[in-house]
Structures are given as structure tokens and as C-alpha cells.
Amino acid sequence: MSVEPSTAEPVAVETDPRLPLTPDTIAVFTDLNCSFAHVAVHRLHETRRRLGLDGVLWFDFRAFPLELFNREVNARPGVDSEISVLGSLEPDAGWRLWQGPDWTYPVTTLPALEAVHAAKSQSWRASEQLDRALRRAFWAEGRCISMRHVILEVAEATGAVDVPQLADALDTGSARPAVMAQYRAACDGRVNCSPHIFLKDGTDSANPGISAHWINGGFGTGYPVIDTDRPDVYEELLTHAAGLL
Questions:
Q1: Which residues partner with 211 through β-bridges?
Q2: Residue 121 exposed, middle or buried by CB count within 10 Å (0-12, 13-18, 19+)
Q3: What CATH number should be reported for the domain whose range is 13-243?
Q4: Domain boundaries, the chain
Q5: Closest CA to 37 of 100, 109, 106
Q6: Tens of pLDDT along 39-58?
Q7: Whole-angstrom distance between the N-terminal and C-terminal Cα of the chain?
Q8: Quick one: DSSP state of residue 92?
């Protein structure tokens, strides 16, 4: 889901807060309840594995909180309308229509986004595994990832996260300033949508390989139609990132 870009002046690569800090990391701005991002994250992991780049390149997941940009909950009707369309592109990512009562639907992803960032203090792997597990918990398992205990249960199941350390980070809010800084770095159209990928040399790709339009109304009213889909873009991006090492 996109926000409208602006004509903001470009920022020099060496000072651009959107870029990863090192060439072996790829900055990925996403929200956890964005279906386009669910496709992108699945493709990033699978492409990296296929190219033999696990442990060589890392994904630095950064917050693109749709609820802050849009000043409202990411509405269930809009999310539901995307599942069959986006799910057909990458069925193995894990998808299911929400089965619980409406009042159990996640109202915010900010605590989960904070958790993903907090896990970076443990390792890139911990953050990556938590991010992917939270996406699957929401999209495939219908779990309310707004809730502290769900986030910690998902973290425990990864086997990659120190859960007491993560719980302390959530309880003290230690990751919150970084998440809000990521949001501010994305404002004014500088990050176009969830997902938007940035490499260390300034190469970027918004919603890589996919273009879409909406029929019979916008998000929450109509439904998306995929105009183009080029999964090979991920191989191009990761190969280019590996060439920066």
C-alpha cells in the first residue's frame, strides 16, 4: 500500500538515513500487515537462499507504519481483498483469511515493529527470523500480533531470539525512538510504499517488480489487479548488493 510521493530534494548517499549502514545489509521498509510486503519478504529470503547468499547479505527491516501515514487502522476489508490476489503470486509465503472475531483483529503493528528492531541488538538473524515469523503469524495463522504475549510466543518459537531480552526491550520501549526515526526518514515521499528496498550505493526499488491498480474503489472498497509481476527483480537486486561487498 503506497503513500503519495513528493518532490523532496534527494539526499547525498553518505548522509541518507534510508540507506543501510554497511554494504552487506539491505534496508527493507515495510509494515507487517501489508500483503505486498509479505510477498516481497518471502521473495527476499527465498532468492537469497537460492543464490547461496545466506550469511553474506542481511536484511535490515525498517518500519513503514501504515497506521501513522494514513492516520487510521489498516482496514481488514482492504487487507482481505488483497489476500487472494497477492496470495496467488507467492502461495508458499502463507495466507489465510482472518477467521477470528473482528475485535481480535490487530489494531496496531507498532509493538511488533519495535520487537523486530529490538531483536537487531541480538543479531541480524534474530531480527530476520522474528520479522518473518510475525508475518506468518498474522497472514497464515490469524494471530493478533498487536499483543505483547503473542509477539513473545512467536519470538520463542523461532529459536533465534533471546525472549527475556526482547521482553525487556518491549517493556522499556528501548526500540521506540529508532522505529519513529525510521518513520520520519520515510516521510514526505522519501520512501514510497511498503515495501521499499534500499542498497548501500543508493540503489532502490519500491514494491519490486510489481505494479497494480484498483478496481471498483480504493483500498478497503475495491480490489487490486496485478498489471505486472517480475520476480526476477529480486535476483537482480541481491546480485547487485553482493557486488558491493
A1: 228
A2: middle
A3: 3.40.30.10
A4: 13-243
A5: 109
A6: 999 999 999 999 999 999 99
A7: 32
A8: G
